[in-house]
Design brief:
With about 425 residues, the protein is an alpha+beta fold. The protein is built from 15 helices and 8 strands.
Length: about 425
Amino acid sequence: MTRQAMSSLALTGKSRQLITKLHRWSGLALLAFLFVAAFTGAFVSFRWEIDTFLNPQLFKVQPAGKPLPQLDLIGRIEAAFPDALVSTLTYPKAPDDALRVSLKSRMDAHVVHKHVPGMKSAVAFNQVFVNPYSGEILGQRNTSDFTVDRINFIPFMLRLHYSLFLEKWGVWLMGGSALVWLLSSFLGLALAWPRLWRNIKAWRPLLGIRSRQGEYKFNYDLHRSASLLTLPVMIVVAFSSAYFNLPDLVKPVIGVFSPISSTSTVASVGQVGLDDSILPPEQAAAVALQVLPEAQVSYVNRDFTKGLYAVRLKLPTDVAPIGNNTVYVRMRDGVVSSTRLAANRSGADTFIAWQMPLHSGVAFGLAGQIIICLCSLALLAMCVTGFNVWLRKHRSEKDLAMRRRARQTPVSEQQAAAPIEA
């Protein structure tokens, strides 16, 4: 960077040298993690579209009359997978959509677990696709398997994106990387911040790319301009990544500004046995819709430890694709036990509810998904150009150090070190 360009920046001197080193080495430490996150993120931003395209036999059915009773469907599924228990029914959004069913271990039916995304499933298959009209099982998969094929491609990308297939260690590792990435992004902004930042003209040179002045300048400019242009999105994605992987660390910070509700506050109404007579799921959904008649049912979850159905409802105004409202219905008699409605949530609850829609881009529909995908590709470019800048800088500094040592070495020592010619 020229002296004239340096003089236009707000940060100079020893402070700039220190922040440059912090940004450079934090970026280098994160390089592999960010590359994986960016590569997988480009696919994850269109996860359902890609999954449906690759596996139409799992997601699409031919409508034929009325759907079968859900207890009948559950019986067929659990008969086909005797070691598993149906935990969640994800409702079709359209008549030609299949019913997506989540399974858990039957042995864990009455065991309370803290949900840690990224952990390996305890059953052979944890996701089943069913034709709701005929009861035919269209296919099954284990979303935690290390398998790359058409059926498991998106689950593979999701798990790699979230935990690197390293279980809890991977979850913490990617969460910690997100926090360092967030800090490094602000360090990069500090390095690029112009002295006359209120003047729009001061920002224009920072977004330009010198394509004919050598490889180093091209990589440096591309890295800086891509970082600045995508910075608002990257900050949101980095923060939400840290929240998803390290909620126990991030939630207390959010809670400083506003109280946070917790799913653990949903009181049990009494454990229900697996063979006990319970209300059919569709009736629990109908009870929940009486609370919010204008909503659509996204899924119904069965919690035998608390004796409750958790019915997720989506209103037209909800930002999350699955909705931001949950009604808890007693499995034995169909009485509403409690509700968690978006209209009654605190500011912190609303802020948290926005994290996944923002992270995936679905908060803004197709345009948001495209932006997240493009930013993932931009992050890939930043990883490559950032490494090239570091490598060229490292080689330059190494060559400079060698020349300095050569100048400081006495001539007699240089002659003594020279090889003897035959």
